[in-house]
């Protein structure tokens, strides 16, 4: 391909049009922009990533694909609008999350950078390139998608300008996904209500002001603050006001103020084979895998575009053939495993299946419940770009032994050493004092609050170690009715609604907290970059012990040791 001093001209599949030239910033490891890149400075803050500490500003970022959070589209939008973004993005293969953020910048704000996918061989050659030049690249904007009369009417503005803008975005992403047509969807879950910066707020308010109204039942993800209590919690107005304003803009467009990152816990949840549009990475994995509903891993902002039109690309996990596993992963026998197994194994499987839907064997004997599958899926979605998983004998599409028997799948056999390595990756801090115990990423369920209350019963919380739980309003109401909330408050637990740990900042995180203990594989991964703190990871019981003792001794669970 050339030496580190050469300028390499590249071509490939153009996802967003444009021309650019710049120094190459190359990685062969996928990256989540949310939790992985600072939207203000352009620094890569994922402390588990090989490029940690690098700045992508003005450089041509070459990476295989995205992973993790659907909110990555919001981060790239902010970077482009504040001038801290890359000059261009070169991908190994097409992806939706980063690309959609660039498309929003172009469609709504008239700002853009080229995005191009070059394929495996050409991408590998970029490792030795010094500079990359992209010249006059032109993207397919969806002109070949078959449209119904209703689609044409929306595109022509008969349902208002907001719906027309939304339809243009849907068509561009349909072209990227290789869809020939659109399908109707029955419900939506919006992740774009998270406050990533002024660009995301301007986008939501523009759609609102253009008369945007959702046309299907639409729920809202956790937002960046507790909408009702951020002021009394001491959250600065510089965050609280715009974060609440983003949420208000989506509510004004007809979305329900559910404010939870676990919409599958709501009483009205999707049925098997129901065609939906959900964003929020853990919710997508749960909907596809556990509920058997059908959604792609939709990026932020495309979620509201589809909710405004009721139309989605006929592609990806909406299609039965795209839901088949591409990889088999076997888990070794683990005697007396506790609840820390599920986030740990989900995290690990995501690392060995970074973009392929896996079939996981060896877990059915542990009979995972909804809470276990929630923790598993959230951690998996942190390290993998895949939109779902199959667990043999557990998830609905993998319950019959013969379902995938005919597939010739590559097999990865995990070992106890692999699990131990993942455990140490999630435990970035040395054993010792902790200054905060963080629970509820994703949002705690009422059953998890009951389990926590039982573990806290008769114990005394350490005076200098807050234990904070984030949860949705609906699940908290159930826990109040059962008496669990009263028991938690008696122990000294702080309950926070509407927001989640991926958005929580000071002062809910104490200024002097250096180490945070959590039972979430997702937060153990993202926490160091998002908070600047080090993390300890363990079971729910281990978290309670840390809240009582003021320290985590670092004991391995018996099933792992």
From TrEMBL:
Domain Phosphomevalonate dehydratase small subunit-like, residue spans: 31-115
Top-rank taxon: Bacteria
Lineage: Bacteria, Pseudomonadati, Pseudomonadota, Alphaproteobacteria, Hyphomicrobiales
Record keywords: Iron, Lyase
UniProt keyword annotation of rRNA-binding present: no
InterPro entries in the record: AcnX, PMDh-L-like_dom, PMDh-S-like_dom
This protein's name: Aconitase family protein
SUPFAM superfamilies to which the protein is assigned, alphabetical: LeuD/IlvD-like
All copies of domain Phosphomevalonate dehydratase large subunit-like, residue ranges: 146-545
Database matches in Gene3D superfamilies: Phosphohistidine domain (3.50.30.10)
